[in-house]
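re: that complex we talked abt at group meeting.

here r the seqs, copy pasted straight from the sheet so there may be weird spacing, ignore it
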Amino acid sequence: MASHTDIAVLYANKPLDTQVTVKAWVRTFRNDQFLAVSDGTTIRTLQIVLNKEEHDEAKLKKLNTGACISASGILKPSLGKGQDIELIADQLEILGECDPNEFPIQMKRHTLDFLREKAHLRFRTNTFGAVFRLRHHLAFAIHAFFNERGFFYLHAPIITGSDAEGAGEMFKVTNLDLNNVPRTEDGGVDFSQDFFGKPANLTVSGQLEAELAALALSKVYTFGPTFRAENSNTSRHLAEFWMIEPEVAFNDIVANQDLAESFLKYCFNYALKHGREDLEFLQEREINEDKLKPVEDRQSMPLIQRLEFVANNEFERITYTEAIDILLNSNHYKKKKFKFDVKWGIDLQSEHERYLVEKHFQKPVIITGYPAAIKAFYMRMNEPDAQGRETVAAMDILVPGIGEIIGGSQREERYDVLVQKCKQFNIPEDHIWWYLETRKFGTCPHAGFGLGFERLIMYVTGMQNIRDVIPFPRTPLNAEF
RNA sequence: UCCUCAGUAGCUCAGCUGGUUAGAGCACAUGACUGUUAAUCAUGGGGUCCCUGGUUCGAGCCCAGGCUGGGGAGCCA
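got the structure back, here u go
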């Protein structure tokens, strides 16, 4: 027999008139009689009713917000209006006291930036409880989606000797004595004495490794931490984040879009089904927070409706060239409201993407066929268009409020073309000889994409800052916890 | 890295044109009440006004530099 029962289980089963024990943390103690406690198994709190005569007064004094308690008694239908069950406790034990003069979390609205500085305690709040339960559900949804479709979960290395991925600045991994770095004759660092005998870094992407596996196992995906040493200070970037990268042999760019779209819809539906109460809470929270904002900054649709809308509607699919035409023909452009110029060949700026997604289409948009010059070396070259312009089979999925949530492509599988691209992008062949060899030995068309897990969570939870959807955010100058 | 806004009680904030002893709500303490729902009511304690320097008879307020945080941009997922 369990030593105690989860509050989520009590609400699910409602074992009325039976003896139960709960272990949980105090949220409020009202009227010297009503204790609201949470054990984090659900967004809901349990009301514990304490008959004053049965409990030591000194003990009742310790029922401060944040204290940990164990309570036993009979579960009864509640006489009050805020809940349908309550525990009439005859036994109460304080497992861990909580000094109210020092505990920073109160039963009142805190700003998210304040709670960010209390990352070790913010799990105790309703908002972060809901966010991290949903983070769990989404992680589970990702594995379920791929597993149901015959994908194999591939663990790409976190330490990599490859520096050719080109996805951003990398963190160096070394065990050299930094106070006494060995030098080569020309004064550089002598990496031959380092742990791997060569420079090593934390991975910025598992894609290249996933491609190697896909060219044998057909369908694989990675899901793991990824690191970028960029000095990015935005609400959408982390130095350490989790990425999902499926890679599929024999898929072309259209099949890649189909996979990505069904993947996102699956995740949203899974969250709606398994995280409903948390989503309802976050929706209420967002509505209340929106009241403090100017009208133009408020959400046009409540959170759950937004997720249902995306889950039930086709994504818009356009080419880069069409996107440029839409922008050039927009009133926004004609009134010169874009800060950055629009013409074929530019990399789309945030303001352009926002216009397309939030103003023009008002739904997720998949853009394909980007100019070859602004995309990565491994993306498959398309035939030049009527005007002789070179594009690649790339795709970005943009969603309202977040911007780019997925980036992917069909990969260049033709050896000669890929070698040529390496030259153009100044990537030494001997750095990625192993990648090139897959194009020599039984190459095939294949495609894949990368998805930032935290951006997915942002979209599902409605949280506006990426630092609030990962337990311990790593950003420039911040690794306290 | 750039632009921009902010930093006043444990938290959220107000503080006028530079002027006497810096305020409110919540939280906390004490008491009242006892089926409450972030309970309510009364009373009370609580301040390095981010830091350093400057201007001034006088700075929370003005100026310079710095630190920290938010928002936006770039880079991207």
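couple things i noticed - Chain A has two domains: 7-103, 124-169+204-468. The radius of gyration of chain A is 27 Å.
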